[in-house]
C-alpha cells in the first residue's frame, strides 16, 4: 500500500484519504502518514510502515494518538517495539504534519 502523495482506500468503508511521505530509514523502510482523520469525533492519523523484502513487503499500520497497531504482515515483535519507540518520539511532528498536509505544505518545519 506504500504511496507517496497518493490516495488510499480504507477497506470496507470506501473512505479515501491522502498519504504523505514522512521518512525513509536506512534499510529502505518507508513511513508515510495520512491527513487528519476524524473518527468518532476525535482526530486520528494513520501511519503506514512498509519494508521491501524478497518477494514483496512487510507492512503494518499504526493509528495515532492511541498507538493502535493493525494489519501486521511480517514484522517481528522486536520490529514493532522499535517502531513504537520511534513513533512515540515523532508522533507530535507527524500529527502536526497531518494537519498541515505533509512536509510540502507545512510552513513551520
Written description of the protein model:
The protein has 109 residues and is of the alpha+beta class. It has 1 helix and 7 strands. It has one helix spanning 77-100, and strands at 6-9, 16-24, 30-34, 37-39, 42-53, 56-64, 68-73. Strands 1, 2, 3, 4, 5, 6 and 7 form a 7-stranded antiparallel sheet that branches. Strand 5 (42-53) and strand 6 (56-64) form a beta hairpin. The radius of gyration is 13 Å and the shape is globular. The two termini are 27 Å apart.
Outline of this structure?
By secondary structure, the chain is α+β, with helices and mostly antiparallel strands.
Oligomer: single chain
Shape: globular
Q: Could you describe the largest sheet, including whether it forms a barrel?
A: 7 strands, antiparallel
* Model regions low in confidence, pLDDT < 50 over at least 5 residues: 1-7
Number of helices: 1
User: Helicity range of the residues?
Assistant: 10-25%
Average pLDDT over all residues: 85
Order of helices and strands: EEEEEEEH
Question: What Rg do the Cα atoms give?
Answer: 13 Å
Structural class: alpha+beta
CA-to-CA gap between the ends? 27 Å
Q: How many E strands?
A: 7
What is the beta-strand fraction? 35-45%
Offer a few descriptive terms.
globular; 109 residues; 44% strand; 1 helix; 7 strands; disordered N terminus; seven-stranded antiparallel beta sheet; single chain; 22% helix; alpha+beta
Fold blueprint:
Blueprint: E1 6-9, E2 16-24, E3 30-34, E4 37-39, E5 42-53, E6 56-64, E7 68-73, H1 77-100
Antiparallel strand pairs: 1-2, 2-3, 3-5, 4-5, 5-6, 6-7
